[in-house]
Amino acid sequence: MFNYFANPVRFLRLTSKLQPITMLVALVSIGLGLYYGLVKSPPDYQQSETVRIMYVHVPAAWMAMFCYVAIACSSAVALIWRHMLANIIAKSTAPIGASFTFLALATGSLWGKPMWGTWWVWDARLTSVLILFFLYLGYMVLYNAFDDQSRGARAAAILSIVGVINVPIIKFSVDWWNTLHQPASVIKMDGPSIHPSMLTPLILMAVGYTALYFWLLFVRTRAELNANKVRMMSIQQVET
Amino acid sequence: MLNNLINFLSMGGYGHFIWGAFGLSAIVLIGLIIQSLQFLKSSETLLHSIKEKTNETET
To answer: Would the CB atoms of A49 and B12 count as touching at under 8 Å?
Structure first.
């Protein structure tokens, strides 16, 4: 299957079909998620209304990790099988993942101020997510740091694979260390421990964010493939 | 009616933080959508112009 879709023409044909579907899913899910999150769901008995920040914070944090794993996996494929498309998928995911990581940090901070009394603490969860943000920035800078794009892609791919060790650290930081950040309440072995009235908007927003990621990825890979073609054609023109 | 709206917007006194978080998310994500579409458009224009140039040189 990898080899089948590694052909950019086939890949573009598939994504042009999926693009409107992902946009529709994103719009409907985020629209419903906002309605349930801001209007229908009740305030929390401890956090009162601020619990609503969770509906934009948690999906952003999930996407931050999902995008990083996506970059590391495509980078591995790019390094092993030398598929140009895998590098382009990783490159296109980076700014999306960085934006979600920034949002997870910023919305968490906006929740922390009223609930913890501080914008920031050097807690294991917060610190490891900040490192994730720097890994994204490092990846993007490294990718574009060489005149020869393929060297940049290779260096950035190695960085992303080494950095993937941070993802389980983020996930389990709340169990391994005594953090101020609360432990997991949705993705747990014995099922979610939050009430369906709050789980509904959370899941809707998470589905919406995931669909939005794929839509953005399809747009950006298309643009990157165009840019690649331009680069190839200019080289050919210089040679002739 | 107006009271209901004011109550909703104040979010139990936490309105600044809650609307701040939702507003910031909207700005960043919409910004990313616009930037991605602009990137696609500029790449298409560039590809188009370079294709035309190659055609000219070939003919």
So the answer is: yes
- CA Rg, chain B, in Å? 23
Q: What is the pTM of this model?
A: 0.94
A68 within domain boundaries = yes
Cβ atoms of residues A63 and A57 within 8 Å:
no
Examine residue A9 and state whether it is found in any structural domain, yes or no: no
- Tell whether B6 is covered by a domain: no
Q: How much is the pLDDT for B59?
A: 64
Residue A114 contacts residue B14 (beta carbons within 8 Å): yes
For the stretch B1-59, pLDDT in tens is 789 899 899 898 899 999 999 999 999 999 999 999 999 999 999 999 988 888 877 66
Q: Which of A197, A200, A210 is CA-nearest to residue A25?
A: A210
The phi-psi region of residue A23 (left if phi > 0; otherwise alpha if psi is between -120 and 50; otherwise beta) is: alpha
Phi, psi values for residue A124, rounded to 5°: -60, -40
- Chain B, residues 1-59, CB within 8 A of chain A, namely 8, 11-14, 17-18, 20-22, 24-25, 28-29, 32-33, 36-37, 39-40, 42-44, 46-47, 50-51, 53-54, 57
Residue A3 lies in a domain: no
| Residue B10 included in any domain | no
| Residue A130 within any structural domain of the chain | yes
